Amino acid sequence: MTTDDQDRNAEAEAGGEAMAAKARLEANLARIEELTQRLVSAMGQGRQVPSALQGPSHDLYLKAAGSYWSEMMRDPAKLMEHQLGYWGETLKHYVETQQKMMQGAQAPASDGPKDRRFANPMWDTHPWFAYIKQQYLTNAEAVRRAVSSIEGLEPREKKRLDYFAGQIVDMFSPTNFFATNPDALQKALETEGQSLIDGMENLVRDLEANEGDLVVTLADADAFRVGENLATTPGEVVFRNHLFELIQYAPATEDVHETPVVLFPPWINKFYILDLKPQNSLIRHVVEQGHTLFVVSWINPDPSYAEIGMTDYVEDGYIQAIETVKEICKVRQVNAVGYCIAGTTLALTLSVLKARKDKSVKSATFFTTLTDFSDQGEVGVFLDDDFVDGIEAEARAAGVLDKFYMSRTFSFLRARDLIYQPAIRSYMMGEAPPAFDLLYWNGDGTNLPARMAIEYLRGLCQEDRFATTGFTVAGHEAKIAEVTVPVFAVGCESDHIAAWDSSWRGVRKMGSKDKTFVLSGSGHIAGIVNPPAKKKYGYWSNDAAADSPEEWRAGAQKHEGSWWPAWMAWLKPRAGEMVPAREPGSKAHPALGPAPGRYVTGGRLAAE
Q1: Beta-strand (E) ranges in 331-391?
Q2: Mean pLDDT of 239-262
Q3: pLDDT number for residue 142
Q4: Which residues contact 266 (CB under 8 A, 6 or more apart)?
Q5: Range with the lowest mean pLDDT among 10-24, 93-107, 324-338, 435-449?
Q6: Poorest-confidence range of 15-24, 72-81, 514-523?
Q7: Which of 235, 402, 476, 532 is surrounded by the most beta carbons within 10 Å?
Q8: Ranges for the Poly-beta-hydroxybutyrate polymerase N-terminal domain (predicted)?
Q9: 3-state SS of 304-327?
């Protein structure tokens, strides 16, 4: 081949590449135009979130500002010290960065603690990104110092101001913006902009799927099917009413303990968090330890459930389930388990049963349960009247507290992990949602009946009646001291929803003389779904008397591995003699269909 031929071939190849690039550009531009039209259309359909649920009352900020300026007038030197310190740090950082850039050297090293948002090496090696990061961290520290120095606020107001100021600071992290996120910029260059197209498609998909509400898809919805690769422990639905389906799980041993276990999961979420897959299924584990296990699967209510209250959950939920289990197993007592709000309601039910002289419950186990709400923990920032008034108005108007509000509230307790990072990966990086079962469950939320939600928020969370004056339910003034059955309770060390020390205080106020409390590592979910085989999180125990959670923790012994075996060891002497294994159902309660049932997958609301 001659040189001319080679040149012509090179020109032809270059021309072909140019034409292909032009075609890709034109296709991407057309795709962007289509997506933009869909984006505008989807955003126009979003719900109008009531102003009361868009943030705390402006009174909080006005009061904080008033206190700040009042303090400035009283002690101007303190404000000047803060401002001059901030200006000095900013100017020093700017000069150092300029000098390094002129010298062609790396950015000045950061002495601050490592922040996983800034894991990309460019945040430390590239002068521009290092400057952006360090200035953001300087600004964040200035805000923190300013908020912490404000005086004249009540402790609860100070806590809320600190939380919402932190939310604003997190929102303005440079990682949340395309132009200041090196991962997103690199991905766009590597993919010739395809990641931006994919990200826009993900954004439009989420808006359209949620009728205009921006809810980031956390997990691949096509990777999981409840009853196929989630919630697969064999069992049968043996009872159904307007509130729940009762699942009896098939035995895994030839003999079982005489006293059955009935587990009440929270109706804020779906029960299969306890049966995600065989390797981490608490449900399967309990069955394999020789227990006849029943699990309640709550209905996901629609607006027709508006007047369903806490009394309905106690009478038609808990007591009905307990009576049905007793009938099927032909026993006089059960061992009951309650998780989160279901544990709170189990405690209410125990008070009601005691007043009725009903000894149907032999022992009670509480997973991350609040019964004393005097300290509401992190979630307390959402429990003042400014929010609760808005929730009440919205719930009464809609008939339910929509799962959108519950999901958003809990997500903002861990905004970096459940809002910003998923949004960055999906919308700025163009990545598909991961096939992660826990995140899939997290996105499979439920509504709450209006009346029940209001009773819970007002009477229990805000007014703390169960631990003080008494909470009216099922015709009884329920009090925490009336919980007198043997108790095993589990708190979780880093629980954002039910702080372990508040859980400990509630258990201490119970009237039982047989109480065991253990503290699991990790949080509200991972601390409970902690199978022994993983040996991932340990737990603490302390049988000695203590006057405070701090004293209890100081004397607690650390154990490696899961608390599940400790619970099984505690339950065994309270579970009765061994009897032949029971198959699900009975003549009076025949099997209605296989587990996990209809309600968990959005089946019919009405009992058949």
Answers
A1: 334-339, 361-367
A2: 98
A3: 86
A4: 339, 340, 341, 342
A5: 93-107
A6: 72-81
A7: 235
A8: 114-285
A9: HHCCCCHHHHHHHHHHHHHHHHHH
Distance, CA of 233 to CA of 186 (rounded, Å):
44
Query: Which residues are CB-contacts of 439 (< 8 A; sequence separation ≥ 6)?
Result: 218, 219, 433
- pLDDT tens, residue by residue, 502-526: 999 999 999 999 999 999 999 999 9
Supply the CATH classification number for the domain 235-594. 3.40.50.1820
CA distance 446 to 435: 21
Question: Which residue type sits at 446?
Answer: T
Residue 226 DSSP class:
B
Reference 423, options 178, 255, 235, 589; nearest CA is: 178
Report helix, strand or coil for 467: coil
Burial letters 445-476, b for 16+ CB under 10 A, else e: bbbbbbbbbbbbbbbbbbebbbbeebbebbeb
C-alpha 581/C-alpha 599 separation (Å) is 27
Q: How far is CA 45 from the centre of its chain?
A: 27
The owner of tokens 């990061």 is: 133
Find the DSSP H helices in 264-377. 282-288, 310-312, 320-329, 341-355
Phi-psi region of 535 (alpha: psi -120 to 50; beta: other; left: phi over 0): left
Specify whether 329 is catalytic: no
Confidence (pLDDT) at 195: 86
